Amino acid sequence: MAYASGKRAFGFCDKTGFRYPLKDLVDEYKDGVKTGFRVGKDVVDPDQPQNFLGRVKINDPQSLRNPRPDRSLVESRQLFGWNPVWNPAQYAVASVGKVTVTTS
After folding, report:
1. The model scores a pTM over 0.70
2. 38 with 28: CB under 8 angstroms?
3. Where are the domains of the chain?
């Protein structure tokens, strides 16, 4: 059987009823299955990836086998500096007091 394929071939959107060129009608999918509707490219609702969460196997282990914790806890909490760029926070001095601001 021969089908129309000319530039003047048109069809109607199953969702809106608007007339479209036949090449601009696309299949609509719901949960990865064709619904049988042919809709215009501008009104198609793409299938959302959230609908496929249970279908994909995910392996996300949370623990490590034979872990090696950081043994240098004290050294990792220190501030450091080096020449020629020195870290001024290494010798920072802080105090608590009152500040009075006068504006004119």
Report:
1. no
2. yes
3. 7-48
